[in-house]
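Narrative of accomplishments. A recurring question from our advisory board has been how the design workflow behaves on a single, concrete structure rather than in aggregate. To address it, we present the structure tokens for one chain from the evaluation set, followed by the sequence designed for it. No filtering or post-editing was applied between the two.
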């Protein structure tokens, strides 16, 4: 029901003839030339009849659809009534202007379709341009408002351009050079027959714009505008991964398809191959949220493309698994215990964790949480509860009890570098005197291959025995060997044992402890 190529060509010829006759008038061609405007006017009247008949059919289709399915067609039906009201209003106002120009030209008994004084150049100026009663400004405002209203409801870009151009009130390039407005160029001292012909052309353009909007509405109402020869049932799940206790949701739809033509599909600016038959595939990259959009287009029964846009989001998750050794379900009191928490099929950001049993639980990022049990609850249970947001519903997934243990005692050691500059920890046995003297402090930590937790040495005592078996104790300067201790070490003979005793340390849990003595044989 859109403007056909033949109609458009005919309209262009009429417009061209109109311009030719205007130019001939400017050259003061004889009044016989004015009769040519009558021919153009009559052709335009025929165009109005064709357009109105086409529009009546479109209104009839919309009315039938509304009668059979009011809920589905309500919006299109209401809009169609609004389009008719606006179009008739503009058309009738233009008809009134034509009648006024005819009356101003030939008197009260004038016939707008049969002017006597066709060359009257005052009538159109008086009706349209008069400072007191001129109607030109109102016409321009009506055309501008009507044009913008219609363009909002035409989806096809080329048709929007045609309607925008035919109802434009912008002055032509020639008028701009002569510093004339659209009104001045169209009606100022224009022969009556030319002014009426121009107004008739505007009526034609109004009916054609009306038809384009109606055609757009009819295309949107029903799939009857598409050629279909097969109905298929489809199951569209909201998710293919369902967690225990959560509902499985899927939309069961009936789709009408045309096996004789494949729709054109474009995704993210790239056309999908017809061989894919509508299947969109993409390799999932790094974890995160992604979005794609595009359109699907199919030809309607009148050959006009019908396009529908779409947009979809999806999430990519890293491969994951949970491994929980039963013999190691412990957390240590007073320190940060890093715990990995994940729920298969759920994004990390949608997973939360809480705790009971004394202590705290806080997220560190990337699925790592920090559990810090209270030292007052050593020997008790530390219960972690994990929840996940699935399809907008927050649900507890699992809870797990962990045993709270106190940190084990650390091991004291002397740290030094060997001949190859490798860092070493000496805990007992033979050690060169020079190595001990080069060491500034005594250290202690838990270093059992699982935990690596340093402790602060608060104090320690070194002791050695002389030949008479007399003990010589010396006190440290905090974690550092005191000068008296170093002097004591210098006096020791090779093979003599040095005892480091009364070692007092403080752990990251804030608890002070006494460690067993360590024995070093001077090498």
């Amino acid at each position: 029901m859109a403007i056909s190529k033949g109609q458009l060509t005919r309209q262009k010829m009429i417009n061209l003839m109109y311009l030719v006759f205007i130019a001939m008038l400017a050259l003061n061609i004889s009044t016989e030339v004015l009769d040519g405007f009558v021919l153009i006017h009559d052709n335009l009247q025929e165009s109005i009849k064709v357009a109105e008949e086409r529009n009546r059919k479109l209104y009839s289709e919309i009315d039938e659809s509304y009668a059979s399915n009011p809920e589905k067609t309500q919006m299109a039906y209401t809009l169609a009534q609004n389009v008719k009201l606006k179009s008739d209003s503009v058309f009738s106002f233009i008809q009134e202007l034509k009648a006024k120009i005819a009356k101003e030209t030939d008197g009260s008994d004038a016939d707008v379709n049969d002017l006597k004084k066709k060359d009257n150049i005052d009538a159109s100026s008086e009706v349209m341009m008069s400072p007191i009663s001129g109607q030109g400004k109102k016409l321009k405002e009506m055309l501008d408002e009507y044009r913008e209203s219609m363009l909002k409801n035409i989806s096809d870009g080329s048709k929007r351009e045609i309607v925008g151009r035919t109802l434009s009130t912008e002055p032509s390039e020639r008028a701009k050079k002569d510093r004339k407005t659209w009104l001045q160029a169209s009606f100022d001292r224009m022969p009556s027959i030319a002014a009426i012909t121009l107004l008739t052309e505007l009526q034609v353009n109004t009916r054609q714009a009306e038809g384009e909007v109606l055609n757009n509405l009819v295309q949107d109402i029903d799939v009857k505008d598409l050629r279909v020869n097969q109905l298929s049932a489809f199951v569209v799940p909201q998710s293919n991964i369902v967690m225990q206790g959560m509902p499985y949701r899927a939309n069961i739809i009936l789709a009408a398809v045309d096996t004789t033509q494949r729709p054109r599909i474009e995704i993210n600016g790239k056309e999908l191959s017809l061989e894919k038959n509508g299947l969109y595939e993409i390799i999932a990259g790094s974890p995160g949220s992604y979005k794609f959009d595009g359109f699907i287009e199919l030809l309607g029964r009148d050959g006009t493309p019908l396009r529908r846009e779409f947009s979809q989001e999806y999430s990519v998750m890293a491969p994951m698994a949970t491994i929980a050794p039963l013999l190691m379900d412990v957390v240590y009191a007073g320190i940060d215990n890093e715990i990995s928490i994940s729920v298969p099929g759920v994004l990390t950001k949608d997973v939360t964790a809480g705790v009971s049993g004394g202590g705290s639980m806080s997220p560190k990022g990337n699925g790592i949480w920090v559990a810090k049990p209270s030292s007052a609850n050593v020997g008790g249970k530390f219960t972690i509860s994990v929840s996940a947001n699935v399809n907008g519903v927050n649900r507890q997934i699992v809870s797990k009890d962990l045993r709270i243990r106190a940190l084990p005692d650390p091991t004291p050691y002397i740290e030094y570098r060997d001949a190859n500059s490798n860092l070493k920890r000496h805990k007992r046995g033979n050690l060169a005197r020079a190595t001990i003297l080069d060491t500034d402090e005594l250290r202690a930590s838990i270093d059992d291959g699982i935990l690596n937790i340093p402790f602060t040495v608060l104090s320690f005592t070194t002791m050695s025995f002389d030949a008479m078996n007399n003990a010589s104790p010396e006190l440290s300067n905090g974690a550092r060997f005191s000068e008296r201790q170093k002097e004591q070490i210098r006096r020791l003979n090779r093979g003599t044992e040095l005892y480091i005793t009364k070692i007092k340390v403080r752990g990251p849990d804030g608890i002070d402890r006494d460690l067993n003595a360590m024995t070093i044989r001077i090498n």
